[in-house]
UniProtKB/TrEMBL annotation:
InterPro entries associated with the record: His_Pase_superF_clade-1, His_PPase_superfam, NUDIX_hydrolase-like_dom_sf, NUDIX_hydrolase_CS, NUDIX_hydrolase_dom, Nudix_hydrolase_domain
Chain intervals with Low complexity compositional bias: 193-210
Gene3D superfamilies in alphabetical order: Nucleoside Triphosphate Pyrophosphohydrolase (3.90.79.10), Phosphoglycerate mutase-like (3.40.50.1240)
Residues annotated as domain Nudix hydrolase: 23-159
Keyword set includes rRNA-binding: no
Name of protein: Predicted NTP pyrophosphohydrolase
Length: 416
């Protein structure tokens, strides 16, 4: 009897987009909202004869958050940014497949917002796929929705509105993209080895096997001194080259792959509506935000105190004091009720910032394992502001989907 066909996971993403019925009203973090004062955005699918939330499958290896904002714009024409994540929906499809749909709270962006400028144009979905869209009061939407899971998501939105948790602030922590690792080439290593051997009086292999056709005259003192000077100069050049490499390794720029990661980061940052950025002094930290900033994403502020190395202007400050400055900076960013912000941090200061974020997290979030970011990954903290202070209600980890050609080549070579 043949083995059953393994299940295949189909990943999709979407958003529950809401707005005030009064266009002039501004949403404030922590403000309780009467559900009668808001509308939610729904789509009608003629193929299934149902009303649902805008969503769709990921395309070309794009991230889930990029797929969510693209699908909403395709199906409704609304450019949005994402807020807090909602419960992921899972259900069976035909042919042994399981569908997994990731949802976020979504809000339309104001006209001229940077997220609108940063994204590529999106073509509207055909009418055979989506033939109607509607802004609807939550009470009426509950009657229109077909799927039970969609109604549960609506109930979550309504509860968040009443409790003052619908409007959150977002803080992102970025580990910069892959850095360049400088190395002495093989020829340089060979030259250095030969120079070191010569200076120590140890003959190299070529010196041992070399045979002269005619006997050489005995070297004069001047010839010996000149040869020693040349050997010393070669050793000095080799040591200087190694020292330069060590300095570059301490603060390397982005590699070619890291630069591609920085370009792909634009979509991820625009999905959350990031409008401000801070960077540590490391070259990679600044370069990772350069494409986003140059495209009009927002200003990048360099913060010297986010460098915990022993060099720079903070050399004389006690290590504990410098660590305290980093954590205080993170706490200040969390308390701000401002536009979404990204921190591009290289080195151990990033771990200190993540620890500070987890210190404000709710019990379920703080109880999870501390995230370990890879190059190009982003930790997204969603912050709720209430009368008792702030709470980090959700933590997400997202990565750019850049493929490393070098890693692919290494895997291919192992197969052969």
């Amino acid at each position: 009897m043949p083995s059953p066909r393994p299940q295949r996971l189909v990943r999709s993403a979407g958003a529950l987009v809401w707005r005030f019925t009064d266009p002039a009203r501004v949403a404030l973090p922590g403000e309780p909202i009467d559900p009668a004062d808001i509308e939610v955005l729904m789509v009608h699918r003629p193929r299934y004869h149902d009303w649902s939330w805008p969503k769709g499958k990921t395309e070309n290896g794009e991230s889930l958050v990029a797929a969510a904002v693209r699908e909403v714009e395709e199906e409704t024409g609304q450019v949005i940014t994402l807020g807090a994540p909602l419960t992921t929906q899972r259900y069976r499809l035909g042919g042994g497949q399981t569908k997994e749909v990731h949802y976020w709270v979504g809000t339309p962006v104001p006209e001229g917002h940077s997220s609108e400028r940063l994204r590529a144009p999106v073509a509207r979905a055909p009418r055979t796929e989506i033939d109607q869209t509607a802004w609807t009061a939550p009470e009426r939407a509950a009657d229109m929705l077909t799927r039970r899971g969609d109604r549960r998501l609506l109930a979550d939105i309504v509860a968040r509105a009443r409790e003052g948790r619908l409007v959150t602030t977002t803080l992102l922590v970025l580990r910069p993209g892959q850095g360049l690792t400088p190395r002495l080439d093989e020829a340089g290593d060979a030259r250095e080895s030969a120079a070191a051997s010569a200076s120590s009086g140890t003959p190299t292999e070529s010196a041992e096997t070399a045979v002269s056709a005619t006997p050489r005259p005995a070297p004069t003192p001047a010839m010996v001194a000149s040869a020693a000077a040349r050997r010393a100069a070669r050793v000095e050049r080799a040591l200087a080259k190694k020292a330069e490499s060590a300095v570059a390794l301490a603060d390397p720029p982005l590699s070619r792959f890291g630069l591609r990661q920085a370009l792909d980061l634009i979509d991820l940052l625009s999905s959350f509506g990031v409008a401000r950025a801070y960077a540590s002094p490391a070259t990679r930290a600044r370069q990772s935000l350069t494409p986003w900033a140059s495209m009009g994403g927002g200003p990048v502020t360099l913060v010297d105190s986010l460098d915990l190395t022993a060099s720079g202007s903070y050399t004389q400050i006690d290590a504990e004091a410098r660590l305290g400055r980093v954590r205080a900076f993170a706490a200040e960013r969390l308390r701000e009720q401002a536009s979404p912000t990204v921190l591009s941090i290289a080195g151990s200061a990033r771990d200190a910032i993540i620890e500070e974020i987890r210190a404000f997290a709710s019990a379920p979030v703080a109880g999870g394992q501390a995230p370990r970011l890879r190059c190009g990954q982003v930790l997204v903290a969603h912050v709720e502001h209430g009368p008792d202070g702030l709470v980090v209600a959700a933590l997400e980890t997202h990565a750019v989907t850049t493929k490393d050609p070098a890693a692919h080549a290494r895997k291919a070579s192992k197969k052969h």
